[in-house]
Amino acid sequence: LEFWDGAKFVGSDPELSPREVALNGLGGGGWQRRPARDGTIWRVENLDYVPEGWVIYELEFHTDAACGGAGNWSGLGEYYGPEVAISSGYVPSSVVPKSKHGPHKAFDKDPNTQWLSQCFAIPERLEPIGVPSPPVGCHPRQAWIGLDLGIKPQVVRCVRLLQAGYRRMQSSTVALSKWDGNNWKQVEEYSGLGGSTWHQRPAGPNTMWRVVHTAAVEKQCRGQLSRNNNRLWGVAELQFFSDQDCSVPIIGGVPIVSGTVEAYRPTIMDDTSYDASRAIDGDQDTVWAANCHYGWDFYNVSRVDCNDEWLGVNYGSVAVEVRCMRIMQSRLESSTCCDPGTDLRLERWNGTTWLEATWRHEPPPAAPEDFRYLGADFRMMGQCPPDSYEDPIYMSRIWEQRARKDSDNCIVPLTGAIALLGKSFCIEHPACTEAVGGAGDCCPIGDGSTSESRCCCSFLQTEIIFVDEEELNPFRRDFNVEYGVLILAERLPYFGAVIAVFLYFTAQCARPNAQDSVATWAGRPGCCSFFRRMIARV
Questions:
Q1: What is the per-residue pLDDT across 237-280, written as a single tens digit (0 to 9) for each?
Q2: Could you say which DSSP state residue 488 is in?
Q3: Distance CA 535, CA 512 (A)
Q4: Which uninterrupted H or E stretch holds 188?
Q5: Distance (Å, rounded) from C-alpha 367 to C-alpha 390?
Q6: First to last CA, the chain
Q7: pTM, to two decimals
Q8: Which residues pair with 145 in a beta bridge?
Q9: Around 264, how many Cα atoms within 13 Å sit in the side-chain half-sphere?
Q10: What is the DSSP letter of 312?
């Protein structure tokens, strides 16, 4: 800030403090206030590069760490009006009003309106003649949006964010910052965000679980239409369970997704909507479809790629443990949707980021290795209907169930005797055939030199693999018959060799008349004469 001294502008005045002179951290497209007290202005900013410009439908700041919860509103901006919304800037609309995409549109409680950051593509009709357009794409911290709360300081403890479903217009990691009186100061960093659904941070550990698409099915099913383009990943139903057998469902929760296809060319084969709620509504005839880089208010089938798209459930403040899941992938026959995934991964929220779901395994005391954590990568998904199925492929409804022991990386160390006593081929074990296919060796893996077997092996189906499993029979826990037999089969030959050597040297060192003495001892009458004769023979 400079002032006119009667002859020129000057920037120093002993009566003005530095915070009154240096107007830092300003944005555009709206009123910006300086000076401002600590905690009176808050914003979120992108920490990821957003290739096609950041798009936010709705944003909420809350003073409560649970964002109100149970319907109790704790948000800021509810009673302040749209003039408090501030941003780094926005792209003007090609129609009146020009502020159609301004920052206040992210606080109007209407998910059908949006804020378009200043690094979004400028409409062609608004491009100045002879002036090159700025590059499209938001570099980290280049785009931001927030609220100016006036003179009363506030503390934001929770953020709810609704981004566009197109991942090239999302930032999966954002920073929550406040104005500290002189500069912007980052308060929190929130990661693992998606689009098309509300995402809330902070979130407690194990309160959110998701299924990630890691590979698409390449082989077409019998009767399926041939296509020269990839289609979207679609899910009709997803269910999580707290037990190993998928018999105890985890109730409640709201869907969260990486992004939904929000604009497409509808056909008679398309669903009326591919909203995320359709994946957990209990209706097998409704479908959620991932965006898969398909586009936002435009679409391009040539760049469809569903890898790393995900579908999950947010259980709010309730921490849960998922041990089994059931999923029904869609096979709609429209040009847009749907191609199932063959490889899926189960992930959990640990409080700060998404991690592959793992469970601790502790081998029996006699095992050669220490504990290990077993993951949740599932293969052989998206199977075709059986050959006996005669209806059109889009009418098929196939539930696929996977538990922890079915994971591709659920592998446990066992004794080397497995190579002798177990049937190594995967096809000999029904659970392995379904989980990883019938080809190759599973029990043990490979040539048996590593002494590792898959958890899907038949002889492990009734065994304790994970430390959180309950053992109903304490005697069986203390005396494991199956494992004991394997240990004996591996070590008895060594005991036999030691005993043979001992008997050999005993015979060599015996007295000349030892045989007569033993015969006399064995022939003595009595109740133990049978046992004496057996010992004498040895």
A1: 999 999 999 999 999 999 999 999 987 777 788 878 899 999 99
A2: H
A3: 19
A4: strand 184-190
A5: 50
A6: 108
A7: 0.83
A8: 44, 87
A9: 30
A10: E
